[in-house]
Amino acid sequence: MARDKDTTPEAIVLGWLMRHPAGIEPVIGTASPARIRACGDAVEQAGRMSRIEWYRLFTAARGAPVP
Rounded to an integer, what distance in angstroms lies between the CA atom of residue 55 and that of residue 18? Predict the structure, then answer.
């Protein structure tokens, strides 16, 4: 998904967390400038992520379909 959206996997994961219905506010927990830059696109990715994409990632993480 990151490749298709021309961003980083970190931005996709953080965007997914930001779209979570529980209202998660992720903390990246790093001082590495490279990791911080990799996460820089997360807010935009959260705004662009469709429900279908969100559920695809959820299903992939679970390893099983959503009931």
Answer: 13
How far is residue 1's CA from residue 3's CA, in Å, rounded to a whole number?
A: 5
3-state helix, strand, coil in the chain (%, to 5): 55, 0, 45
The one-character DSSP state at 3 is T
For residue 43, which amino acid is it? V
Q: How far apart, in whole angstroms, are the C-alpha atoms of residue 40 and residue 7?
A: 9
Cα 53 to the center of its chain, rounded Å: 10
- Whole-prediction pTM: 0.89
Average pLDDT, the chain: 95
Encode pLDDT of 8-17 as tens digits.
999 999 999 9
Q: Are the CB atoms for 48 and 6 separated by under 8 Å?
A: no
